Amino acid sequence: MWSIDQIADLMAESVWLENLRLRAEDAVAGIDALDETALHPIIARHLALSGLGVLREQHFPTPKRDRPRNSERERCDLVLTHDPAGVLIDPVEIERREHELTGTLFAPVANKAAALVGTAPEDALWIELKVCGQYEFVAGVPIPNTAYTTGVIRGPATDIRKLARERAIQFAAATLILFAIDESTAKHDLQIATHKWLDQSLPIREPIMRFTPIDERIGNSVAAVCMVPVRPNLD
């Protein structure tokens, strides 16, 4: 249904193209100065240009209680559909519509009237995204990242658990964009992280990794995209 390899290729390509854009503009800071919030639209735009439907900050389909307010629901960073229109069916919204129609003249056809057209949650690809750099800016000064190990291991681990809890999701990937001093360092650190996740019995499949060079400005010379497929429907 979904080729994680292809999505990883597209993500790495989006990072490389943004690196080229910043170089052409003689930007003061490079792509490794961008945080998750800044990288989300860059990646989303490139995925959309490839013909995919892309939704950002989409509500997770499984609420913690009945008919929650949207403000109470957790969100997923990126959700992909094979339909470029990017319309995702929200089970919570359908249930809310059915409830509103109960006791009205439309009650006999509530299910049909409440139905939405689009991609079902179980057919979409749900992606949580983290960003970590071996070197980063602190108060405008580039320094070694003192929280590097935490960022590489714990951030994705949290996303893996979150995605695995979602009963209505079949395809999911916790994704880390890692800026590192070189490819061998990035590969080594991601392999260690993978072993740590497996040691914690996290429900993952083999990570897909892509590496692309970036202009070295503060110590990082490579960007690694690590997509970790998550096995679904686990409590």
Brief overview:
The protein is of the alpha+beta class and 235 residues long. 36% of the residues lie in helices and 23% in strands. Strands 1-2-3-6-8-7 form a six-stranded mixed β-sheet. A two-stranded antiparallel ribbon has the order 4-5.
Describe this structure in words.
The chain has 235 residues and is an alpha+beta fold. The longest helix is centred in the N-terminal third of the chain and has 21 residues.
Q: Which structural class do you get from the secondary structure elements? A: alpha+beta
- Coarse morphology: globular
* Individual helix count: 6
Uncertain runs with pLDDT below 50, 5 residues or more?
A: none
Spatial arrangement of strands, main beta sheet: 1-2-3-6-8-7
Outline the biggest β-sheet: 6 strands, mixed
N-C termini distance: 23 Å
Compute the number of strand runs: 8
Average pLDDT: 88
- Helical coverage, percent range: 25-40%
Query: Rounded to an integer, what's the Rg over CA atoms?
Result: 20 Å
Q: Strand fraction band?
A: 15-25%
